[in-house]
């Protein structure tokens, strides 16, 4: 239980640093430290690393897609989301097998969490980081709720896949020895 609480607190610390720091250089140091602590606690760096990388890339692509659809405006022309927003996906990935594992089953828990919490997180982050929502607040929140109701179960699917691959490798190694 203490590791789950620490995992949640580290995520929250990372979220605050990302939205307040923007793309400042020390942002990378803080997020790298949080991820390093996280990786020191997990049993499989390989499985967790695959999960972190997959969620980081998929999430960054999703938010960049939403940016190009006009859901977000960062105050300058850009095709890709800023680093601070991409790093939030990395931090989120670090919670999937840990403090958010309870939302994996049944699937509707993660959908409900995604639909409720993600839009509020985006809204708070947008206010702090001075990101505008060109479609308006309520239409953006509805879009994000619908997207995240689908995204969270998919992210848990990534987590399950890499966890099962790791467990299969362990079983194979034990039976071979």
TrEMBL record:
Transmembrane in keyword set: yes
Organism superkingdom: Bacteria
Residues passing through the membrane, by range: 26-44, 51-69, 81-100, 107-125, 137-159
Upper lineage: Bacteria, Pseudomonadati, Pseudomonadota, Gammaproteobacteria, Pseudomonadales
UniProt keyword terms in alphabetical order: Membrane, Transmembrane, Transmembrane helix
Protein name: DUF2878 domain-containing protein
Pfam families per the UniProt record, alphabetical: DUF2878 (PF11086)
Entry annotated with the keyword Transmembrane helix: yes
């Amino acid at each position: 239980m203490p590791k789950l609480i620490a995992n949640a607190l580290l995520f929250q610390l990372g979220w605050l640093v990302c939205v307040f720091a923007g793309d400042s250089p020390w942002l990378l140091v803080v997020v790298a430290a949080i991820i390093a602590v996280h990786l020191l606690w997990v049993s499989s760096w390989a499985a967790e690393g695959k999960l972190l990388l997959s969620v980081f890339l998929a999430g960054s692509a999703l938010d960049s897609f939403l940016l190009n659809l006009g859901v977000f405006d960062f105050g300058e022309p850009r095709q890709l989301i800023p680093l601070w927003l991409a790093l939030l996906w990395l931090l989120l990935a670090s919670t999937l097998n840990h403090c958010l594992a309870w939302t994996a089953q049944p699937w509707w828990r993660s959908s409900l969490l995604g639909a409720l919490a993600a839009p509020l997180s985006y809204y708070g982050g947008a206010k702090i980081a001075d990101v505008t929502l060109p479609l308006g607040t309520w239409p953006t929140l509805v879009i994000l709720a619908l997207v995240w109701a689908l995204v969270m179960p998919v992210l848990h699917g990534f987590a399950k896949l890499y966890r099962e691959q790791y467990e299969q490798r362990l079983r194979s190694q034990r039976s071979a020895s």
